[in-house]
Design brief:
single chain, mainly beta, three-stranded antiparallel sheet, 6 strands, binds zinc ion
């Protein structure tokens, strides 16, 4: 039996790396996140969905 490969076409979603301004933790998320993204370490809100493009609440953003 062969595993069926499912290739999901990605819409204009980019991965971005954001740095928490409070604790310096870096984590990777989508540029169009549809849920609130919080820092894994301190719980600070880093990305807030706005219906379209997510609002990034940190200035330290890198494209991955
Ligand atoms: Zn943090």
């Amino acid at each position: 039996m062969r595993k069926r490969e499912v290739l999901t076409p990605m819409p204009k979603t980019k991965f971005i790396k954001i740095e928490c301004p409070d604790c310096g933790n870096e984590q990777v998320t989508f540029s169009h996140a549809s849920i609130v993204v919080k820092c894994n370490i301190c719980g600070r809100e880093l990305v807030r969905p706005t219906g379209g493009k997510a609002k990034i609440l940190t200035e330290k953003i890198k494209e991955v």
